[in-house]
Amino acid sequence: MRTRAAVLRHPGKPFAVEDVELGEPGPGEALVRIAGAGMCHTDVIFRELPELPAPMVFGHEGSGVVEAVGPGVTRVAPGDHVVMSYDSCGWCGQCMAGAAPYCDEFMARNLSGVRADGSTGATDADGGPVAARWFGQSSFAAHAVATERNLVTVDPSLPLELLGPLGCGLQTGAGSVLIALNVRAGSSLAVFGVGPVGLAAVMAAKVAGAAEIVAVDLHAGRRELAMELGATRAVDGADPALAAVVGQVDHSFDTTGVPDVVRTAISVLRPRGTCGLVGVGGDITVPPMALAGRSLRYIFEGDAVPQQFIPHLIGLWRQGRFPFDRLIRTYPLDEINDAERDSANGTTIKPILLPS
Questions:
Q1: What does R_g of the chain's alpha carbons equal in angstroms?
Q2: Backbone angle region of 148, left / alpha / beta, with phi > 0 → left and psi within -120 to 50 → alpha
Q3: CATH architecture of 173-300
Q4: Range 316-341 average pLDDT
Q5: Architecture of domain 2-167+323-354
Q6: Taking the CA of residue 333 as centre, how many other CA atoms within 13 Å lie in the half-sphere pointing to its CB?
């Protein structure tokens, strides 16, 4: 079928919204009419890499309505409202153990842009291949073919166009706190970088009952919002005495990927504390003694299984305890390059692209 999509033709260049021909859903796949698609920092980082296949459609925080399903699909049906998350195989040891973010096939299924058989899923107006399998969805488009594994059905009464970010960024921040770091009531957490992932972590820490939640960021506006959403203190990330100002905490969480910030996040841990990382940045050198009695780990997708965790976040939102909608600003799909600019300069925290 013909649809509109934001196509990246050259790494690092602007997106171009154009017509593409999307293939029919194959075995285990579903065609989804996109209601909204969040723009995640991962989309921005990886689209700069010259080794990625181009042309390509990014987008991995889609939400929409199922229009058709391929052979063997049983968990969703036409008319279902869905949130689209990451893809996984479902049968490797990690998936079978409930650790789908660490699926043996995670990289190939989510970061290659193509199916396992090498097919791209779409063609352009000239019949050339367009990679349309980013995170099993490529949702910067009016329609996407997703895998059954990455779809989560939701209540049709919900504001569907706003739910896409629950599929990755917000899931990552909240899951890292509630699942991976297992922040408990009365404990303390420092969040370094309070963009959408960091703010989700702040909101989740409040849900967990953390006694102290320290928000660290360079942007005053983000620090102020973090205080409104549950932080007990906000610290300027440019403070030359940053570690001393943050103080000692039970858990730290870095979203920046900046090596110096990561080292600070480790240094503020109490003995037996844990630092969780989700940012993509440069190599980090840490003296072994800095980890004495402490733990350091990189977290994918908040350790969350989407079909379990996304409904939990929606429930918290309905209770007024996870107000993620306060982070969102919507843009027409045609204004995708404006959305990327505003996200990069801090004007917008979480852009959502609306195909209609």
A1: 20
A2: alpha
A3: 3-Layer(aba) Sandwich (3.40)
A4: 97
A5: Alpha-Beta Complex (3.90)
A6: 26
**In terms of Cα–Cα distance, which of 340, 240, 5 is closest to 143?**
5
User: Is this model's pTM higher than 0.70 or not?
Assistant: yes
259 preceded by cis ω (within 30°)? Answer: no
Among 94, 119, 158, 99, CA closest to 23: 119
Domain regions of the chain by residue span: 2-167+323-354, 173-300
Average per-residue pLDDT for the chain:
96
pLDDT score recorded for residue 28: 96
Asked if pLDDT for residue 289 goes beyond 80, the answer is yes
Query: CA-to-CA distance for 330 and 294, rounded, in angstroms?
Result: 41
Q: What is the pLDDT of residues 339-348, one digit of tens each?
A: 999 998 889 9
